Structures are given as structure tokens and as C-alpha cells.
């Protein structure tokens, strides 16, 4: 049986007041890098991506696979989750080695990195990252987030009380400061958030909290765009779009 760590490893960014910080889930079950990647993509977002300026807090019992890899001996290191070249690295002394090791392990004691053969078996970290680069309508995006993981694995995940993830509630300046760089990585110019207009009221789907400070166009449903988005290169607090449009979206793990 897969042994999942009881502690959620939070990734603390400089934006420490945001509830949208991604988490890592540690699995103490040795797998090859490819096996770990497949598992994380099925049950979370992907193998863990580590960004500059972010610090892991927490502990795990063994060295772990992260999402860094390269295709050939001479190619550049990139992240499994985004397929982007790694601009930040945290190699241990003397690493990486100039050999055929193409996958990366993070040491349990100091979180430094070491390249390894991809068919080696290690425990692993899955990322609960927020941006999903799939194009879905708002309702499809909401369902995608809510089906990621159940609070109680013995009950259906789509019960209203049993989903651990939701479309992101981007309430505060800290939330927006965290979410906008993620939205900037999207393949669409807008990304869905959890903001929704129903029954004459704007609210966040994560907890049903009403939103009062909307602009005049959004009041009383004057706009025909009833779902919330973040727009690339925009600084507005709230923006809306036709809910049937297909966009990337932001999920978050509920506190």
C-alpha cells in the first residue's frame, strides 16, 4: 500500500500571506522517476517543481525524486510540470555529474539536489501546484479541481464536503501577488478563478463567501460574463468572462 506522509510540506514563498501557496505531498514508497511522475500526474499536479525564492519547510524520511530532468546527456535541465528550462538550481557540492544521470533527487537533510539514474528507486514529492494548463469551461475547471483529491478517500470525492481542492479564491493582495505570476505562465490570456455570479450575488466557490467590493459593471449582473478570471498583464482586482469560454485555470488546496 502506498504510504503517504502525514505531514504536508508547504512551500513558503516571499508572499507569506497568501492562502494559494502550493504544497508538496511526500510518498515514502520507492519508485523510478517515471513511475513517480505518472503517479503524481494522476493524483496531484506533477512531480515537485522548486522555484527561486521559495523555501521548503518540513521533513521527510528519505531522499526524494523531484521533477527536474533532462532528455540527453548534453541537454538542459527542465521541469516535468511545465517542460520549461530550469532557471534556478540548488545542486549539492560537486553536482551535477557529467555522466548519463538524467533525473534529480533532493536530499532529505539539506534539500540539496543530486542527479541520479532515472531507473533508480526513491521516495518522491508530488506538487499540488495551482495552474492547470488545460483548456476547460468554468464548470469543467471547477469539476477538475474538485476531483483531484478527497478529504475522506473512502467516500466519493464529488460530495460537497469531501473535496480537498477548488478553483482558487483570489481574495487578497497577497493572493493576487502569488497568483499573477502563475497566470502569466498560462497558455491562455486569461485563467479561471473561483469567482462566480449566481442568484444575484458574486461569491467564491471555495467557501461561499460573498464578494461585496465589485465594480459597477459587475453589480447586479449587468455584465453577461458571470465567471471570474485573472488576465495577464492586468492589475484589476476582479475581471469576468463568459463561463463557456475554454481557459487554463487555477486550483488550490483548501486550508
How would you explain this protein's 3D organization?
InterPro entries: C-type_lectin-like, C-type_lectin-like/link_sf, C-type_lectin_CS, CTDL_fold. It comes from Gymnodraco acuticeps (Antarctic dragonfish). By secondary structure, the protein is mainly β. The chain has two domains: 17-127, Mannose-Binding Protein A, subunit A (Mannose-Binding Protein A, Chain A, Roll); 129-253, Mannose-Binding Protein A, Chain A (Roll), CATH 3.10.100.10. It contains three helices and 16 strands. Strands 1, 2, 3, 4, 5, 6, 7, 8 and 9 form a nine-stranded mixed sheet that branches. Strands 10, 11, 12, 13, 14, 15 and 16 form a seven-stranded mixed sheet that branches.
Summed up, what is this model?
With 255 residues, this protein is mainly β.
CATH architectural designation of the largest domain? Roll
Tell me the total number of β-strands.
16
CATH class of the largest domain equals Alpha Beta
Q: How many DSSP H or I helices?
A: 3
- Please estimate the helix content: 10-25%
Number of discrete domains = 2
> Whole-Å distance between the termini?
27 Å
Structural class: mainly beta
Q: Sum up the overall morphology in one term.
A: elongated
Please name the fourth-level CATH homologous superfamily of the largest domain.
Mannose-Binding Protein A, subunit A
Protein name: Macrophage mannose receptor 1-like
InterPro entries: C-type_lectin-like, C-type_lectin-like/link_sf, C-type_lectin_CS, CTDL_fold
Keywords: Disulfide bond, Signal
Organism: Gymnodraco acuticeps (Antarctic dragonfish)
Amino acid at each position: 500500500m502506498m504510504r503517504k506522509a502525514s505531514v504536508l510540506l508547504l512551500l513558503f514563498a516571499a508572499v507569506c500571506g497568501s492562502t494559494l501557496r502550493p504544497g508538496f505531498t511526500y510518498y515514502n514508497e520507492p519508485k523510478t522517476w517515471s513511475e513517480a511522475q505518472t503517479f503524481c500526474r494522476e493524483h496531484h499536479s506533477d512531480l515537485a517543481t522548486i522555484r527561486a525564492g521559495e523555501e521548503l519547510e518540513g521533513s521527510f524520511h528519505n531522499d526524494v525524486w523531484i521533477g527536474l530532468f533532462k532528455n540527453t546527456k548534453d541537454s538542459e535541465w527542465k521541469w516535468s510540470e511545465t517542460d520549461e528550462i530550469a532557471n534556478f538550481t540548488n545542486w549539492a557540492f560537486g553536482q551535477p555529474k557529467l555522466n548519463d544521470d538524467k533525473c534529480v533527487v533532493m536530499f532529505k537533510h539539506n534539500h540539496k539536489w543530486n542527479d541520479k539514474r532515472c531507473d533508480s528507486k526513491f521516495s518522491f514529492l508530488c506538487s499540488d501546484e495551482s495552474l492547470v494548463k488545460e483548456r476547460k469551461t468554468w464548470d469543467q475547471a471547477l469539476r477538475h479541481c474538485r476531483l483531484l483529491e478527497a478529504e475522506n478517500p473512502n467516500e466519493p470525492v464529488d460530495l460537497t464536503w469531501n473535496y480537498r481542492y477548488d478553483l482558487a479564491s483570489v481574495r487578497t493582495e497577497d493572493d493576487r501577488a502569488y497568483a499573477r505570476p502563475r497566470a502569466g505562465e498560462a497558455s491562455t490570456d486569461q485563467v479561471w478563478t473561483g469567482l462566480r455570479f449566481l442568484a444575484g450575488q458574486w461569491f467564491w466557490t471555495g467557501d461561499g463567501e460573498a464578494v461585496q467590493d465589485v465594480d459597477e459593471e459587475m453589480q447586479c449582473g449587468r455584465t453577461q460574463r458571470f465567471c471570474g478570471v485573472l488576465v495577464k498583464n492586468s492589475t484589476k482586482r476582479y475581471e469576468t468572462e463568459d463561463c463557456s469560454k475554454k481557459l487554463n485555470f487555477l486550483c488550490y488546496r483548501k486550508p
